[in-house]
Structures are given as C-alpha cells and as structure tokens.
Design a protein that fits this description.
alpha/beta; Rossmann fold; Dihydrodipicolinate Reductase, domain 2; six-stranded parallel sheet; elongated; binds 1,4-dihydronicotinamide adenine dinucleotide; binds the ligand O=C(O)C1=N[C@H](C(=O)O)C[C@H](O)C1; amino-acid biosynthesis; NAD; DapB_N; DapB_C
Length: 233
C-alpha cells in the first residue's frame, strides 16, 4: 500500500515506523512547510491513502484537499467534529472515502465496548452518578479529548438520566502522558471505575495502519465499528 503522511509530528513518525515494518511504502510526507506537495506527482498519482494526524484547525482543510484530489483519508486528528456533517455529505454525494477514530488503539475500542455494557447495566441503578476523567500530555490542544467525547456518547446512549450537559468530563494535562481515560460510577456506598492507560503511541499508530489497510477499495464514512464488527460482541 502506498501511504502519504499528512502531519509528521509524534503520530506521523510513529505511523511511519509501523508502516515500514508492515512493508508499506511512504510515498509522500506533507507537513506545514511543504503544502505544495498536495500537488506533487507522488501525492496525486501514487497514493492509496493519506493518513492525517495534524491539529484541530488544520484537519478539515486537509480533508478537503484530499477529497478534491480523490485521495482516501484515514484520520485521527481530534477537535474538528463541528465539520462532521459536511464530511459525511462529501462521502455520500461525492463517493469519497473517510475513516475517523477518536482513538485507534484496539485496547481503547475494547474499553469503549466495556463502558457501553456497564452503562447499559447502570441505567437500572440511579444511585450511581457517572463521570469521565482524562489525562494527557501538556502539548494537547483540544479538551476534552476525542476519546472522552466518544466515551460520553456511549454512556448517554445507554443511560436515560444522562445528557451532554449533566455528564461531567474532567481534563488534566500532565508532563508527557500519552493518554489515560477513566469512567467512574460513584454511589454513597461505593465507587466502580474502569480505566484505559496507554503506555505509548504504538497502539494508536498500529490501529491507523489497520484502518488504512481496511479501507482499500471501499468508499463512504467508516469507523472502528466497521473495522471491528467481526470481532467485537
Ligand atoms: N485518534 C487517535 O488514536 C489519536 C489522535 N491523536 C490526535 O492526532 C493529532 C496529532 O497528534 P500528534 O502527532 O501527537 O501532534 P504533533 O503536534 O506531534 O504533530 C502534528 C503535526 O502536524 C503538523 N501540521 C500542522 N499544520 C499542518 C498542516 N496544515 N498540514 C500538515 N501538517 C501540519 C505539525 O507541524 C506537526 O508536525 C492531535 O489532534 C491528537 O489529538 C493523537 C494520538 C492518537
Ligand atoms: O492528543 C493525543 O495525544 C491523543 N488524542 C486522542 C484523543 O483526543 O482522545 C487520542 C489519544 O488519547 C491521544
């Protein structure tokens, strides 16, 4: 598979390593200083997928640049969801290919499923109040994290008494923490919590490559639910 990396920061570098281990080719690397490479021969004619990890405000313009050139996109950038409907429309009306996950780690996606299952049970136990905590490195630009937003959606879908306005999400920024997410249920009598703690960025990078492999010859708006459907209960 021929990959273009859009964004060559912490995630871009990690994805490059895993892509090469899996014998994929990196045909172009586009960062802030070489935007003209969106019109290079390699990007236009030799790219099977663009893997985009940049910044909240640059993500949507980058997606549009890829769509204008009919290049499929796998992205993990968070903090751009105000544009979600426009992206879905592009996929539907112009047959573009777009894969987004707020978190590509397989472990986090198991954690999402576990959190939904717990929320479904907690719908019957109103003595518990639920909240989310997330901790990330000090360089993170968006808050709350994309992962915390996905966790909150899974909880709100399953607990009738919970809405976006009464579900508390606490965000902390500390040192170089790759990402910790905790869902906490507190009652007067006890506390139940479940946590995912990323040791490094390898799981995010591998998941993004798996998504890029998965979307080959597919069109539409795709997520980890599509990728993991055969293996998640
Ligand atoms: N979905 C997931 O599993 C994960 C998502 N992320 C998200 O991915 C994004 C990137 O994370 P990191 O790599 O840690 O950030 P980073 O700050 O290390 O790297 C971002 C890179 O994008 C470049 N960039 C800025 N504007 C650009 C533009 N217009 N075009 C191309 N490149 C541009 C920067 O120069 C930098 O090299 C963040 O939004 C973060 O929240 C991070 C880890 C996992
Ligand atoms: O910025 C990060 O680093 C991460 N961002 C994603 C998020 O916002 O949830 C995924 C992961 O937690 C790392």
């Amino acid at each position: 598979m021929n990959i273009a990396l859009v964004g060559y920061g912490k995630m871009g570098h990690e994805i490059e390593k895993i892509a090469r281990e899996r014998k994929h080719n990196i045909v172009s690397i586009i960062d802030i200083d070489n935007q003209e490479d969106f019109d290079s021969n390699d990007f236009l004619h030799h790219t099977d997928v663009a893997i985009e990890f940049t910044r909240p405000e640059t993500a949507f313009p980058n997606y549009m640049k890829c769509f204008e050139r009919n290049i499929p996109v796998v992205t993990g950038t968070t903090g751009w969801l105000q544009h979600l409907e426009k992206i879905k429309k592009e996929c539907q009306e112009n047959k573009q290919t777009f894969f987004y996950a707020s978190n590509y780690s397989i472990g986090v996606n198991l954690f999402f499923a576990l959190s939904k299952f717990l929320a479904k049970m907690m719908n019957n136990f109103s003595q518990y109040d639920v909240s989310i905590e997330e901790v990330h490195h000090v360089h993170k630009l968006d808050s709350p994290s994309g992962t915390a937003i996905t966790l909150s959606e899974g909880i709100i879908e399953n607990i009738n008494r919970k809405t976006f306005s009464n579900l508390s999400i606490r965000s902390k920024r500390e040192d170089e923490v790759p990402g910790i997410h905790t869902v906490i249920y507190r009652s007067e009598a006890d506390i139940i919590s479940i946590r995912h703690n990323a040791n490094n960025r390898k799981g995010f990078a591998l998941g993004a490559i798996l998504a890029a492999e998965y979307i080959q010859k597919k069109t539409g708006f795709l997520t980890m639910n599509d990728l993991l459907k055969p293996i998640l209960i």
